[in-house]
Design brief:
Blueprint (H helix, E strand, L loop, with lengths): L6 E7 L7 H11 L4 E7 L5 H10 L3 E6 L4 H7 L2 E2 L3 H4 L4 E4 L5 E4 L2 H11 L8 E5 L3 H12 L4 E5 L3 H14 L4 E4 L9 E4 L23 E4 L8 H8 L4 E2 L2 H15 L8
Length: 267
């Protein structure tokens, strides 16, 4: 039951119809009798400056998750950055401090790695192809390199963004073979769609699935629909597939810890 003392959390993006975060958080709150609720907040692509001021003004809003297209702009607007966001300049979680400051961090990549390992897919020693060099692609590239991936190939429609990401990850993790890629995904153990393509059934493909090795795991970051056009096509070709929801589930506890949500353990 929502009362006057209920604490608020949110997910901010454009669009927000596809997000799964409110359900995950609200299930977490209900199971632990936490007087809090998580809501989707739709802020248009060009309206974040006004939206940010509004978020600051909601005094019982203790924090929020950030999704596309606001991850990079939110990093610029946070008062302080922590963790992976320091070198990526991208955030997907923001916490309000007692003094009102907004502190941002990036948990997408760590959540993806956690989701992979919890479903029996190793990261260390494997070769990854990442389609997308935006917020999600950046998070995945740093986290995978930091967790022992042997090689990363990064492909993006805007080539300069991929070039910049390749250079920065290579500098941070010189032991990882980081390269600029094309739509050809051959030669990799895992191929990942780290773009928003797949939210709509008529979205174009983000890479050439037919080029992927038959043994490659095909992974998503898009959470809704769970079976994206990419995963449907990959399954038809006989690939093992990995859902986008695993990334959210993998980072839920990380988000709870960062946001300072305290609750007794279940049971």
């Amino acid at each position: 039951m929502i009362t006057g003392s209920t604490r608020l959390y949110a997910i901010v993006g454009d669009p927000v119809e596809h997000v799964r975060t409110p359900m995950a958080f609200n299930d977490y709150f209900a199971a632990r009798n936490i007087d809090a609720v998580c809501l989707p907040i739709h802020i248009g692509r060009d309206d974040l400056p006004r939206g940010w001021a509004g978020l600051h003004a909601i005094l019982n809003l203790d924090g929020f998750i950030v999704t596309a297209p606001h991850k990079q702009e939110s990093a610029r607007r946070c008062d302080t950055l922590e963790g992976d966001s320091i070198y990526t300049q991208v955030v997907n979680a923001v916490r309000r401090e007692p003094d009102g400051r907004f502190i941002g961090t990036l948990l997408d990549g760590r959540g993806f790695v956690s989701g992979m390992t919890s479903h029996g897919h190793a990261v260390k020693g494997r070769r990854f192809y990442i389609a997308g060099a935006g917020g999600a692609g950046t998070a995945l590239a740093y986290a995978l390199a930091d967790n022992g991936a042997t090689a990363l190939t990064i492909h993006n429609r805007t080539r300069s963004k991929a070039e910049n990401l390749v250079a920065s990850v290579k500098k941070a993790f010189p032991a990882c073979d980081v390269r600029l890629g094309t739509a050809n995904a051959s030669g990799h153990d895992v191929v990942v769609n780290a773009t928003s393509l797949g939210l709509k059934p008529n979205d174009p493909p983000c890479f050439d699935l037919a080029s992927a090795d038959p043994t490659a795991l095909v992974a998503e970051v898009v959470m809704k629909p769970e079976m994206t056009p990419l995963l449907i096509a990959a399954e038809k070709r006989g690939h093992a597939i990995h859902f986008g929801t695993h990334m959210l589930n993998g980072q839920l506890e990380l988000m709870v810890q960062f946001l300072g949500i305290s609750a007794p353990p279940l049971g």
